């Protein structure tokens, strides 16, 4: 894959299956260089494999499809080129979509009511005078902000304390009705024009000083459940809870388990039989902030609160939503496991049923009333496709990555396991370029740290392989998917067993594949926590020809006061004293670095603020290390995943240029 082939990456949403089980609808989105944005539409996918998928909408970016429970209406989000998604509905049989929201900041997500006549949705509510709510008042001329909270901004969003995300409810209009006509001419003088002609008025249900998430209706549609932090002292911890509010309005009330400790709840879903609340949560220890490498657990409790039962094992499973009903009292969940993402069916009482496992990453799944299951997934050969699950076997229904495979060779990752110096297993992959070798090697380290590489299609590894590099990717201690003990092994000791594991993986791969890997030409790179471990490693190991440190967590001390998560993240991972932070800080050992290092950062990164990269670059420059600082305006921490297509291509070009200079390959030679 070449950087200019980014538009061939068709990503696929979780599927919406029609209640009768005949078809699913997904959004298919891709980077577009002409728009310098992400464009995409909805596709209908018949579950009868003899019929072909087809595009059914033609918006700029249509996403998040969901059928009404009666199957008559399809709702989805449509974004204009400015990127503010609004809620649209269209008859399931086809027709012209109708817009039903007019939210200033756009709609973030939605859910149908059981009666198929109402939709609850999420939207940020800006304070008057901010975010363009007053014509002529731009962001640079708004009033000053007086901040008193820890949690006042978020990467990718900006300030949040003055635009909390709230729950709304809107009545879905009769789609066959007469379209609204805005008054014109003398009629416009006789009657005031509505702010949004033809768009029904939405009703705000929540007003709390917290972002509200994961709304769902009760089985009878009379109440809504959601997740928020509305407890006293919520700004000083990471605790969130399930709340309930009457669908007609009123004050929310907390629905608490009687036997659970401090938790951060990440999703909630009411069972179809009306008896249970399923929710996913991570335990937070005794402080309410000990989030480090906590596996997600699926719980169930009575709808009114009471004793909660853990349905999944906290040590060995790491589950997440969205929680999709699979029966009267069961839900589908995703499980991060051994470099894959599995699909599990979990009943309120009974055995967990694995539905999809192996070398795949499940994106989402839904179940029809007749038991048909549609699954979106990725693997080594596809960025995203849709399959049906028939008698335990996946049957592919789409091939949205065909153009990618037809225009470039996809290198299948080779599964590989090494043994660390203390005997701990280290699992990962080797992606090889064409040709006999020996090839120069790139040791790539993932972010997180509680995240994982998988064997599914990864654009970065494919671009580097096409340029002639063998790419090594592994999941050292600190990573997700290998048990909670594996993930928590670096708490208070970052840069110890994690560095030991990645270097052991590198050495084992070089020894096992010496014919195709050049042990004397190795580079190292990583972003976020991967940037941290890259910077830490090159201060202790001088074997690498060059390095790339991207959006790095480089100084836990200054991170504490500058990052959106700085008030808790560094202290929980490294320990909270300046001495502990310094002992695990790449900035504290930057003076030992000798490796030529490219530092990459985005100007609007609030997760790992740009000062981390700027100061690291400045120190390298001052001590005579060959270095450069690559800065992307307008981008945040997610540049490599969801930055503008132009910047994503430019990032690849600069990275390949750096490797050509210090680690040239046959397909990426030194420029003349």
Automatic annotation (TrEMBL):
Residues 457-663 form the Peptidase S9 prolyl oligopeptidase catalytic domain. It comes from the Bacteria. One of its GO terms (molecular function) is aminopeptidase activity. InterPro entries: 6-blade_b-propeller_TolB-like (IPR011042), AB_hydrolase_fold (IPR029058), Peptidase_S9_cat (IPR001375), WD40 (IPR011659). Keywords: Aminopeptidase, Hydrolase, Protease, Serine protease. Coiled coil: none annotated. It holds the Pfam family Peptidase_S9. Gene3D superfamilies: alpha/beta hydrolase (3.40.50.1820), TolB, C-terminal domain (2.120.10.30). PANTHER family: DIPEPTIDYL PEPTIDASE FAMILY MEMBER 6 (PTHR42776:SF27), SERINE PEPTIDASE S9 FAMILY MEMBER (PTHR42776). This is Dipeptidyl aminopeptidase/acylaminoacyl peptidase.
